[in-house]
């Protein structure tokens, strides 16, 4: 068993034995996609390795990765289950958000490192003072002054690219663990859409870190095969209901008065909306999650071509139409939204001409609209 697997297997024992002691938690984002899950587990291992080598007395807080979803949601993350499982990382050795009380830990002693996000949701805002470091690849929404240890925030294709760079800067020997190198390799390939230039996700740094990982692997993997396998795992949703698909990869933005879900589904939205009773499922889902609006983002990668579409659903039609107008006009119509005719009550659907604009691009537009509702 690799040192990485040994470490992960020990973290649950650490959590159980140190419930009354301080902990350093490396926290994934709430969507807990492959990039976020791999970034959290690998970066936690790096921090733990650095602490073990430094051998400081008294020992610093133990470091554990936490996947920011409930354990029962993990099976919905089909590509995460597949890629981690391929390297013998099974859910029984992982820690999920519903298995640690971060509010209680905050009172005992807590350090937080955020990976693949850099702003906590409102319900976790009280944990803000505990943030010591951030690694993210999204548009910056906070100042470095508010984080004691600083931030690494850079618009690259994958957060795992930045994690790989951190490993090279702090302890390159970590990449000798083939499991770690393989996990990072596959995630970067998926996030850059197999380095497809049309996706406009890859940067020179993604390419450099990918090449570094190629040299670290004990057996070179075919990036085309890895990409194909990961896309198949991500789109293998035959066992999931329409409602589960909306929980598979979702991010939430909220204020005092509004809560908006932005769900990415592993298919085109037009195909998703053809599922049986989907209109009823949308209403029930919004009610259960307390969403005033639900944005659904679809995508399909066919050979070198990328297609994207979108739906905005709400039982409050005026509210939906306000957000739709904002998205259509954002940054001089950057998204290039073209109306599609889908006959589902409360649902506006669009083909997205700008196929390079993923959720990472759309999310700030939704946040901007939400901020204006609270003025």
Rg result: 21 Å
| Distance between the first and last residues' Cα | 55 Å
What kind of sheet is the major sheet?
A: 6 strands, mixed
Report the sheet-strand fraction: 15-25%
Enumerate how many helices there are, as a single number. 13
Query: Based on CA inertia axes, which overall geometry fits?
Result: globular
Give the number of DSSP strands.
Answer: 11
**In terms of quaternary structure, what is this?**
single chain
Low-confidence stretches: none
Mean pLDDT: 93
Task: Please specify the SSE layout and strand pairing.
Elements: H1 3-17, E1 23-27, H2 34-54, E2 62-66, H3 78-86, H4 102-108, E3 110-115, E4 131-136, E5 151-153, H5 159-170, H6 178-191, H7 204-216, H8 223-235, H9 242-248, E6 250-254, E7 259-265, H10 269-272, H11 278-289, E8 293-302, E9 305-313, H12 317-333, E10 337-340, E11 347-352, H13 359-373
Parallel strand pairs: 1-2, 1-3, 3-4, 4-5, 7-8
Antiparallel strand pairs: 6-7, 8-9, 9-11, 10-11
Helix pairs in contact: 2-5, 2-6, 3-8, 5-6, 5-7, 6-7, 6-8, 12-13
Textual characterization of the structure:
The protein has 375 residues and is of the alpha/beta class. 42% of the residues lie in helices and 18% in strands. The protein has helices at 3-17, 34-54, 78-86, 102-108, 159-170, 178-191, 204-216, 223-235, 242-248, 269-272, 278-289, 317-333, 359-373; strands spanning 23-27, 62-66, 110-115, 131-136, 151-153, 250-254, 259-265, 293-302, 305-313, 337-340, 347-352. The strands form two sheets. Strands 6-7-8-9-11-10 form a six-stranded mixed β-sheet, sandwiched between helices. It has a five-stranded parallel β-sheet with strand order 2-1-3-4-5. Helix 2 packs antiparallel against helix 6 (178-191). The longest helix has 21 residues, at 34-54. It is globular, with a radius of gyration of 21 Å. The termini are far apart. The mean pLDDT is 93.
